[in-house]
Amino acid sequence: MLRLAVTGAGGFLGWHVRVLLRALGWPEPAVIDRTDLADPTAVAAKVAGVDRVLHLAGVNRGDPADVAAGNVQLAAQLAEGLKHCPAPPERVVYANSVQAGNGTPYGDAKATAARLLADTGVGLDDVLLPNIYGEHGRPYYNSAVATFCRVLAEGGQPEVHADRELSLVHVTDAAARLAGVPTGGSWDPAMPALRIGVRDLADRLTAMAATYRTGEVPSLLDRHDVRLFNTYRSHSFPAHYPIALPRRADARGELVETVKAHGGAGQTFCSTTRPGVTRGEHFHLAKVERFVVLRGSAQISLRRVGHTEVVRFPVSGDEPVLVDMPTMWVHKLANTGTDELVTMFWTNELFDPDRPDTWPELVEEARAAPMAVGT
After folding, report:
1. pLDDT (tens digit per residue) in 150-207
2. Same-domain check for residues 95 and 33
3. Are residues 262 and 337 in the same domain?
4. Which of 75, 283, 314, 337 suits a disulfide with 113, CB 3.0-4.6 Å?
5. Neighbours of 185 (CB within 10 A)
6. By the 8 A CB rule, do 91 and 53 touch?
7. pLDDT digit string (tens) for 32-81?
8. How many domains does the chain have?
9. Which pLDDT score is estimated for 371?
10. Which helix (H) or strand (E) is 121 found in, with range?
11. Domain extent for 188
């Protein structure tokens, strides 16, 4: 368990780092914000005695000169603070880019930033990151994946202006690599990449969105299928839910179609819940989980990790609907009726007690200040 300090903690990558640390029960990292960076003594106080400083802050979009100057300035400010620290950290881990030194203003600025950090006397881990994608990415800024997902969630069609091959790494894998988290859960610090063309990516996400429009689960044959689907779902929540389920009735009774999965693993289970009892109070990093109340009445409550707003769905077996739990949202199911509650659950993976991907946290209790991410 390492003690960390983080720049860029409120950004896309920073939020995912903090979610992963929270799941593992590691201490909340010391946050070095832009105000701190302007004051070397404030930086020195924040980084004193920590094991690692993760330098995630950067400028990705805008006027090329401003992007270049911003990335160099942020690294220079951190480097100055490190030089003022009487008890410097063991290492600085820099979220650099595979574009570093490629002759563009952005790439050359990232390479300059790495040199500045290497000249502090603190060991530097210069991590060259490819295209990062994942839940709650900022469209038109973080990645084409986020842009395509947001367009599809709003009912549009992605536009591909130039096709090229992308190397995509899921953001939780990148977070594990930067934070020094060993393999052991749904993440992989080796950062296995999905190599895919921009047009193929748009087609893949479009097919997922079309299948999911009525609640059918697209084919999820590998980890990148699952993570692309979870990314799309993050842009669909909460507006896309609940989804009404088809019902068939005759003299014998009723039939409700709860899950139609097009491929991949899956497990279904049912539970009964007594009046006044609550289930859940946890979140998942990768697992797709579906709730369908078949008898009784309940309330499904969800809160994005690190945020305070709670989304609530009243549901009833009289009008069955599905609500899929978005990854990295704490959720619970409470029986609000006077009778026993019957609920069907479905997940996209067989339960593994050694790797359950279930991280306890209360929905109604935000453990920290909101982790803004710009979406």
Report:
1. 999 999 999 999 899 999 999 999 999 999 999 888 999 999 999 999 999 999 999 9
2. yes
3. yes
4. 75
5. 19
6. yes
7. 999 999 999 999 999 999 999 999 999 988 899 999 999 999 999 999 99
8. 2
9. 54
10. none
11. 4-205
